[in-house]
Prior knowledge:
Elements: E1 4-9, E2 12-17, E3 23-26, E4 29-32, E5 35-41, E6 44-50, E7 55-58, E8 61-64, E9 69-71, E10 74-75, E11 79-84, E12 90-93, E13 96-99, E14 102-104, E15 107-108, E16 112-115, E17 123-126, E18 129-132, E19 140-141, E20 144-145, E21 149-152, E22 159-162, E23 165-167, E24 171-172, E25 175-176, E26 180-183, E27 189-190
Parallel strand pairs: 1-5, 2-6, 3-7, 4-8, 5-9, 5-10, 6-11, 7-12, 8-13, 9-14, 10-15, 11-16, 12-17, 13-18, 14-19, 15-20, 16-21, 17-22, 18-23, 19-24, 20-25, 21-26, 22-27
Amino acid sequence: YGDLNYCIVRGKICGINQGTGDSMIAGVCGYNDGNINNVINYAEISIVQNKNRAATVGGIVGSGKDIGSILNSYNYGRIEVIGQEITESISIGGVCGYGGNIIKKCANFSDIIVDTLVGKLGIRIGGIIGASNSEDIENIIENYNKGNITCLNSNTESLLIGGIAGISFQISNCYNLGDIECINNNLNVNL
């Protein structure tokens, strides 16, 4: 709740969720409904997500509300998500895991690795955002991804992977230079 400006984050973020609560994990802000501007994340994120609940993981923001924004911000921290027996959706993005917030003039420079996930409702992975829920406004604007995305051993009903977004309604003037690789996946993949 509020604004965050001119911030640099370093270090390592590690976590294990075996409980029944949803996870919102990020290098800078787990949940955002304010404005984030000129933020850089160097922290590596390593998450083990087990059992029943949903997870949103992002280099800058885990989950963002429609009224918030992420502007002029950059992720250099590697993101790795390992898990199994997930019955809800998983959304992973280099900048933001899930949300309808505006993401403008941001970039991801680091790799995203997702390993051994069994997701009943699907996995959404994007170089900028895993899943955007904004249908009415153009919210993914002038961003780029240079990180590689690797998905290993996943068995889920749906896997949506994109250099910019796993799923999004409105993308404008963005580009991807990272590679996308899916290895040993027993599913239908949408790239």
